[in-house]
């Protein structure tokens, strides 16, 4: 079965290459902002929005007169940025549509201009991309060294595009490939997974996956670095230095969180045939301030996203139980309902059959039981 997948790895660039990447990111940002503005103007004037192809033609004409500096970068960078602008509008209209139908709770989010202040950004290239053992060759940029050897696929993979991005002074490349993958027959058990704040996940077989809580542990440091930054004068060299330190701290937190989630989701998708999770209303839960930080830290939505795509690779199924099912309040042995159960009650005690069990494993067992009656993702 052909599957789409992305591989992201860090680049080891020299100064010349960094300059070239910055130029490309700059051109992409310029094209994106220019495209958004052109779309707005055209929409206000005519009620129609020009497509990415129209805009690319227009931009190419401008290159000859007003934007000669754009010849220094691959034509893909602005072209793909215009496609992104197109996609941003399409997503915006989709959300407007859903909102009207009452199926969207969040804000509709009008596409915003990209600012250099938010980081150097990224750019996407297509065309002649070649991957070596420790290098990647990109249009215009030539051969770039990779920090990790052998991670990017060199065989049996069709490369669709490569996205280069900067984060806290580090450069990464993400390669989108289409790969032929033989999906194994997964003969593992059915498992219910209760996602939590105290423990990252509790499985119905009794396994508890601890939560690294990277943000909480580093929060003090982040607060200190943040304060240090705001004390420095705006626009000063010292402020930039402090911002870099803070960015580095955030990057480490994000990396650690991603790492843990990837380990857990891969293990589940590989070893279990059916994984039952609860459809947590993450957006609603995030409004509760006390839970907010911890939940954002655990990354529930990201957990589900990873699990869903990995299940396809490893031949397992993800089943989502409606959030209205009483998974915590219900006895996993006899079905008795404890209507008085609150978030503070960490132990479930059944008045029907006398079962005493921690709250989370009880919920996980209920999820496992609901596997047959619920829908796949
Ligand atoms: Zn019971």
What labels would you give this structure?
binds zinc ion; 15 strands; single chain; alpha+beta; 377 residues; seven-stranded antiparallel beta sheet; six-stranded mixed beta sheet; 20% strand
How does this model look, in words?
The protein is of the alpha+beta class and 377 residues long. The protein contains nine helices and 15 strands. The protein has helices spanning 15-46, 52-65, 76-100, 214-231, 237-271, 282-286, 289-298, 300-314, 359-369; strands at 2-12, 122-125, 130-131, 135-138, 142-146, 157-167, 170-180, 190-195, 201-203, 208-209, 274-278, 317-321, 347-349, 356-358, 375-376. The strands form three sheets. Strands 2-6-7-1-5-4-3 form a seven-stranded antiparallel sheet. Strands 10-9-8-11-12-15 form a six-stranded mixed sheet. It has a two-stranded antiparallel ribbon with strand order 13-14. α1 crosses α3, α2 runs antiparallel to α3 and α4 runs antiparallel to α5 (237-271). The longest helix is centred in the C-terminal third of the chain and has 35 residues, at 237-271. The radius of gyration is 24 Å and the shape is globular. The two termini are 19 Å apart. It binds zinc ion. Zinc ion binds next to loops.
């Amino acid at each position: 079965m052909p599957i789409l997948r992305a591989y992201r790895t860090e680049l080891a660039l020299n100064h010349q290459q960094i300059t070239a990447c910055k130029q490309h990111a700059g051109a992409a940002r310029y094209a994106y902002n220019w495209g958004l503005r052109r779309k707005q103007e055209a929409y206000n004037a005519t009620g129609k929005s020009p497509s990415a192809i129209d805009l690319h033609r227009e931009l190419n004409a401008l290159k000859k007169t007003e934007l000669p500096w754009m010849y220094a970068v691959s034509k893909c960078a602005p072209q793909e940025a215009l496609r992104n602008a197109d996609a941003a509008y399409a997503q915006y209209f989709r959300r407007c549509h859903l909102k009207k139908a009452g199926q969207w709770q969040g804000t509709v989010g009008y596409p915003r201009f990209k600012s250099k202040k938010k980081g150097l950004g990224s750019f996407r290239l297509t065309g002649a991309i070649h991957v070596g053992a420790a290098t990647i060759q990109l249009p215009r940029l030539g051969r770039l060294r990779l920090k990790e050897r052998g991670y990017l696929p060199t065989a049996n993979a069709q490369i669709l595009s490569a996205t280069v991005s900067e984060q806290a002074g580090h450069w990464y490349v993400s390669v989108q490939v289409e790969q032929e993958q033989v999906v194994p027959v997964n003969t593992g058990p059915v498992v219910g997974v209760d996602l939590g704040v105290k423990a990252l996940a509790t499985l119905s077989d009794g396994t508890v996956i601890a939560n690294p809580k990277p943000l909480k542990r580093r929060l003090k440091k982040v607060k200190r670095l943040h304060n240090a930054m705001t004390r420095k004068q705006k626009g000063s060299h010292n402020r930039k230095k402090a911002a870099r330190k803070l960015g580095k701290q955030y990057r480490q937190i994000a990396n650690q969180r991603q790492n843990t989630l990837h380990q857990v989701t891969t293990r589940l998708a590989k070893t279990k045939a059916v994984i039952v999770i609860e459809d947590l209303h993450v957006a609603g839960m995030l409004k509760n301030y006390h839970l907010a930080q911890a939940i954002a830290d655990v990354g529930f939505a990201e957990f589900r996203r990873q699990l869903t795509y990995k299940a396809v690779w490893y031949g397992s199924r993800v089943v989502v139980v409606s959030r209205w099912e009483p998974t915590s309040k219900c006895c996993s042995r006899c079905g008795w309902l404890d209507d008085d159960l609150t978030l503070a009650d960490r132990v479930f005690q059944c008045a029907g059959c006398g079962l005493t069990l921690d709250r989370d494993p009880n919920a996980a067992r209920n999820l496992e039981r609901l596997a047959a009656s619920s829908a796949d993702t």
